[in-house]
């Protein structure tokens, strides 16, 4: 395997789960916007169960509107279809979109985090704990490379139709066209996702 200049990484075959190359896969790290993979997983699960529909509209709260970091520029008080907000999470990595959809699905960001941790437990993600839907730093918000690989495999296998949205190179909402933050989508035609993440920490 090649030498990789990273303190933590894991390369697997997503079909079989076979580990190709790895380093410190159990080390606790901040997931940053990789958190949104779990946010999506919860929402995809609710859609599959029929408890919500892509055409349902949610009302954007002031809290969601004021989120810092990456945003899809939702307006407080506006009514937006879940499909558009979900694409804002996936393509634009919008923190505002993540809070808006968490408030709608979980009836609050804190209770949504409970759902996140329940799904993490069901997937065997024993090294992870989530306290928010967006990934901004918090002492009790963490994961491991091993757990993120488990989550990504499950997302791809269980929700192939919705997963395909990760390969969208751009997304437009409210007249604003935003590019996917995953630059590999432009450099390698075989890339179809999943997610990138970054914080100053």
Percent range of helical residues: 25-40%
Rg over alpha carbons: 16 Å
Mean pLDDT: 96
Structural class designation: alpha+beta
Q: What characteristic shape results from the CA principal axes?
A: globular
* Low-confidence runs: none
For the terminal residues, how far apart are their CA atoms? 28 Å
Order of helices and strands: EEHEHEHHHHHEEH
For the secondary structure, the number of strands is 6
Going across the biggest sheet, name each strand in turn: 1-2
Indicate the proportion of strand residues.
5-15%
**Could you give a short account of the major beta sheet?**
2 strands, antiparallel
Number of helices: 8
What can you see in these coordinates?
- The structure is a single chain.
- The chain has 201 residues and is α+β, with helices and mostly antiparallel strands.
- It is 37% helix and 11% strand.
- The protein has helices at 35-48, 62-65, 82-90, 95-106, 109-122, 145-158, 160-163, 184-187, and strands at 9-12, 19-23, 57-59, 79-81, 170-173, 176-179.
- The strands form three sheets. The protein has a two-stranded antiparallel sheet with strand order 1-2. Strands 3-4 form a two-stranded antiparallel sheet. It has a two-stranded antiparallel sheet with strand order 5-6.
- Helix 1 (35-48) packs across helix 5 (109-122), helix 3 (82-90) packs across helix 4 (95-106) and helix 4 packs across helix 5 (109-122).
- The two termini are 28 Å apart.
